[in-house]
Amino acid sequence: MGICASSRRVQQEEDSDENVVYVMDEQGGGGGADGDGHGRKVASLFSQKGKKGPNQDAVILCQGFGMEDGVFCGVFDGHGRCGQFISKLVRDYLPFMILSHRNALLLGGSDDDDDDPVFSDASPAASSTDGSGRSSPNALAPAQLLEEWREACANAFQAMDKELKLQANVDCNFSGTTAVCAIKQGKDLIIANLGDSRAVLATMSETGYLKAVQLTTDQKPNVPQEAERIKRSNGRVFALKDEPSVLRVWLPDEDCPGLAMARSLGDYRLKRHGVVSEPEVTHRRVASGDLFIILATDGVWDVLSNEEVVSIVCATPRKQHASKAVAEAAAQRWRTRYPASRVDDCSAVCLFLRDQQDWASSVAAAKAKGGRRETAARPLAASAS
Predict the structure, then answer these.
(1) Using an 8 Å Cβ cutoff, are 275 and 249 in contact?
(2) Which residues form the PPM-type phosphatase domain (predicted)?
């Protein structure tokens, strides 16, 4: 196999650093130009370096993903000595791998042909039927749609994990990255999660109040099913005395590396001891009250609640600045809550599910309710893997 993608399709905004990347198909998929002369804004992206060294977070938005108005967005949190390189590699190539595997499934062919163009108007995902006359993804039943995307994501994550081993200049034995991704195909949302980054949905309840719904489970060693799998593979799970609330994964006979998550890409020394690269994939049909999805690294979620993040986004005057507002609020919370600790990298992607006019009216309605919020205490589980 081998990683392949056209760098001509990667576009960085002038005011962002290398951690933030925008991608559009060759036809400029994702809509026409707005008043500012840029592609239609469907998401807000931001990555803020912490005080622990190089920024190991990476974020991406792909427009025209699989269909004309399709979208892929992802957040990747690297860790270990080579974490900043691994997160960027995964960011740059995982979206193309997922779509390539998805197209292979639609064609009923092999998943091994990763050299096929993945941003093409001729791809089966971009048309009403594929070459065999099958319906487009949006015509599939939700269960079938989820199963096909789950398989495509699982295959792509596995292939990405193998590709990292082939990178001669990147040592992935004790380095890796998380990945949380949102794929929008028409009214269908597919969420793929690996590690302890998180996706949260903001929606308006039937009574008109703002509601935060966690869409993913933080895959940490404190989750019983994750810990059991690691222990069955002779990995060890325990917390250090100076941080008793943080369970970590350790090798059978060595007190290293102390990984604070149960799933990741990379971290090869722990792959034989229960740390896996299989994502959890869920599906949601966009409802009339759904406003946006926030994907963010644990630098945000370790100090801000789901409800606080949703409120920050809704309070931001210009939605294009929403992710920056979230990251800056998280960094400020780190400084005030843990003054003796180094601020973590804080990165977020906010994928908007309504246009600007609907957005303004929905936020105004929420404010008219006096800022009251409803919360969903548990992640969605009905369609979880």
Answers:
(1) yes
(2) 42-353
